[in-house]
Write a structure and sequence with these properties.
With 751 residues, the chain is α+β, with helices and mostly antiparallel strands. A hairpin with a 3-residue loop joins strand 2 (64-67) and strand 3.
């Protein structure tokens, strides 16, 4: 089947098909073609397609964007107020924290606009426009300007994106960035125009005892009682255009923001999530799933486990170290536990069996079709051939590029050495300036040399236990020959004596840089050896990557054809997607039922003052005990905290808005559940759930706990009597009226 025919098949829909409506991270730009809006309405949606995504006007899409580098955030006021997860804002909260101002522990609540904290490096990106460029790419392939494989690569797509941007009407607009990406394994291509705001300020964050309540123990688990939210604000210049930080910048007047529902949730209610899921691998073969388990997840489990054990110990012993390493620990532990859960869930949910059945059906479909016949077998052959190399590569990366931070910029050192040998003053001076930058970058405020030394002493022997001597980097030979196999002695020599180990060593070297000192530098030797090994492994793996890429393209195109007229969705790649489903409980195992929501009662049940993960702030405890929940409580007086929905999400969706049938905010997605940790590979309809923090709990914390009611004044809170049959025009009238009233109230307060 030709590519064009396949793409037509994507546009067709068979109602009553076996595909679950809950499954799928759907492209907004294909909603009308795939008639998905009709399925959404059958689930309960009260909006039209243009309300969700309207290329020619304002829609829900314009209230959702990329927060930072790997999360989603949503606009919840007409003045650029962002809601996202606490763990998404965690790096920024840590950035502003110190022993004197420990916002991680104490929380942060700006009392007015002037107290909102500029956060250098933090960005918020809106999707301005999406264009289908499939025909353009295919024409270039047909003309021989690019190969089918290279068309999917970043260099080609970046160049093409730049060319198209220069021809567009947006080329002279401020803050516009472009990105071209392949979808459906290169069967489809889209160009994204993004508007990037760089003045984003921290507004509010609950203490970690709320925002991270349950910590690592509860991560990926249900029932959950985590107030996982934080708030930021976008600032712009006087014209509303992106601008670097300036005291004269003003809050962004946003064309679209989300009204907030405090009406409550019932099981079965429609729920949808718009956001930026990071990465899924739904189209892997059986052999590739096994590779994921053994060659990728297991190295992550083993190496990160060793590192995290060290970090946990040193962070518990020092507040300074805890603040320094808080974000590093959180980032590392998240996917360490994810990998453990994924390997377990793959077995528990019989993902391999499901994949095997799919491959059996595909083999029948492929008979007599040369472009598809034998595709899976060819993929399996390559995977089986390369899996030992893949295993080596991931252990090496996790150990020496992930766990251990210290090293040497060996390329800069090589250039300096060359400059010294050739007496090239220009190259010498340039290299020395680069070295100064590297030294400052290594020894930054969030790095402790002694902590990293302890991590290295834990990692070196763990790696050696797994990887045979002949497969290790060359510095292991140095350890055997020059240090008699003593890892600690080698590490101490590197962390004590290397040029970049400390200020004294560095200053001494800069006073008189020599070729001999560079050649003898143990950190430079170490960095040379690890990079050489990585490059050698990468080269061997890349020898089969082109063939594998084309096989995947054919396989995914074939699967789409096999399923027609049922539409297919592409793997997540951190582009804007929509998933829809319902609020729903589940049964994780025999005789166990999980309700679809939790309450503050569970916070007190879990409380443990001796465990940092389960400390309950005194004020929160008092509010819970008095049941002082105000208008946010359930009819029975309980206070909801988190809830479940059947939405299909993954990493990158953190912070995404959970919306009801009217497009009103009901919660903020922050996690998946343990029983469905294999969900990135295969959707599990019976047990796969999204965990979100109930927006009523967010508002309760802001209002009753923090006393930051000035933030509530700029939001539009909806508590209408609307039934499912309610006229949307009436809702919008109420929201507009409320918004104007709140804006006037907020302005009056600020004056």
């Amino acid at each position: 089947m030709k590519i064009k025919t396949y793409l037509v098949a994507l546009s067709a829909l068979a109602f009553g098909s076996a595909m679950r409506a809950d499954e799928g991270m759907w492209l907004l730009q294909l909603m009308k073609q795939q008639n998905s809006i009709e399925l959404m309405k059958k689930q309960g949606l009260k909006l039209e397609a243009d309300d969700l995504y309207n290329p020619g006007g304002v829609s829900l899409k314009d209230a959702v964007g990329i927060f930072g580098g790997g999360c989603t955030g949503e606009i919840i006021s007409p003045e650029g107020l962002i809601l996202t997860n606490h763990h998404c804002g965690y790096a920024s909260i840590q950035q502003h924290s110190s022993v004197e101002h420990d916002y991680l522990t104490d929380g942060f609540w700006a009392k007015n606009r002037s107290e909102e904290l500029p956060t250098p490096g933090l960005k918020f990106q809106f999707v301005n426009r999406i264009e289908d460029i499939t025909d353009i790419v295919n024409q270039k392939i047909a003309a021989g300007e690019v190969t089918e494989v290279n068309a999917m690569t970043r260099p080609f797509l970046n160049k093409l994106a730049k060319e198209l941007f220069e021809k567009s009407d947006l080329k002279d607009k401020k803050g516009i960035e472009v990105q071209a990406l392949p979808f459906y394994a290169g069967n489809k291509y889209y160009l994204f125009y993004k508007k990037v705001y760089t003045d984003v300020r921290m507004v509010a964050a609950p203490p970690s005892s709320i925002g991270k309540f349950g910590g690592e123990t509860d991560n990926w688990m249900w029932p959950r009682h985590t107030g996982d939210f934080s708030m930021f604000r976008i600032y712009a210049d006087a014209n509303g255009d992106p601008a670097e930080y300036s005291a004269s910048n003003v809050p962004l007047k946003t064309p679209k923001y989300l009204p907030i529902s405090i009406k409550g949730l019932e099981e079965g209610d429609y729920a949808m999530i718009m956001g930026f899921p990071g990465s899924t691998s739904r189209y892997l073969t059986v052999s590739e799933v096994k590779e994921r388990m053994e060659a990728q997840n297991q190295p992550r489990i083993t190496i990160r486990g060793a590192r995290l054990a060290v970090l946990k110990e040193v962070m518990a012993a020092s507040d300074k170290t805890r603040i320094q390493y808080a974000n590093k620990y959180a980032g590392s532990s998240n996917y360490w536990k994810n990998s453990i859960g994924m390997n377990k869930a793959i077995i528990d949910n019989d993902v391999l069996g499901t994949k095997a059945e799919q491959e059996k059906r595909f083999a029948e479909f492929a008979k007599g079709k040369p472009e598809y016949e034998g595709v899976v077998e060819k993929i399996d052959a390559i995977v089986n051939q390369t899996m030992p190399l893949t295993t080596q590569y991931y252990y090496l990366m996790e150990a020496f590029s992930g766990a251990i931070e210290f090293g040497s910029p060996y390329m800069v050192m090589d250039n300096l050495k060359k400059g010294l040998e050739e007496k090239n003053d220009s190259l010498i001076n340039k290299s020395i300036e680069q070295l100064k930058e590297v030294f400052a970058d290594i020894h930054n405020k969030d790095y402790d040399h002694e902590v990293d030394r302890k991590v290295a002493k834990a990692i070196f022997p763990v790696y050696a236990e797994i990887i045979p001597a002949e497969q290790r980097p060359a510095f292991y030979q140095t350890i055997e020959k020059e240090f008699k196999g003593d890892y600690n002695a080698y590490i101490d020599a590197m962390y004590d004596n290397s040029i970049l180990a400390n200020q004294a060593n560095f200053d001494k070297f800069l006073k008189k840089p020599t070729v001999k000192a560079i050649e003898k530098d143990i950190a430079t030797q170490y960095s040379h050896a690890k990079i050489e090994k990585m490059m050698a492994l990468a080269k061997d793996l890349n020898s089969t990557s082109k063939e594998l890429t084309l096989l995947h393209k054919a396989y995914i195109r074939g699967l789409g054809e096999m399923k027609e007229p049922v539409p297919s969705y592409p793997d997540a790649n951190f582009t804007i997607r929509l998933t829809y489903g319902n609020v729903k409980s589940y049964n994780p195992r025999d005789a166990v039922h999980y309700k679809y929501y939790t309450t503050t009662d569970g916070i007190l049940e879990k409380e443990n003052p001796e465990d940092r993960e389960f400390v309950v702030p005194a004020k929160l405890k008092e509010l819970i005990q008095k049941k002082d929940f105000g208008r946010y409580a359930l009819p029975n007086g309980d206070m909801p905290v988190c809830f479940l929905s059947t939405n299909d999400i993954t990493g990158g969706n953190s912070g995404s808005p959970v919306l009801n049938a009217n497009g009103e905010l009901i919660g903020c997605a922050f996690d998946g559940n343990w029983e469905a940790m294999s969900g990135d590979i295969a959707f599990e309809p019976d047990v796969q759930r999204t965990i979100g923090v109930d927006v009523r709990y967010v508002l309760f914390v802001i209002d009753k706990f923090a006393g930051a009611d000035w933030l509530l004044d700029e939001m539009t809170l909806v508590k209408s009597d609307c039934t499912k049959a309610c006229d949307q025009k009436d809702v919008k009238k109420k929201e507009t009226k409320a918004s104007k009233k709140n804006a006037k109230k907020a302005d009056k307060k600020r004056k």
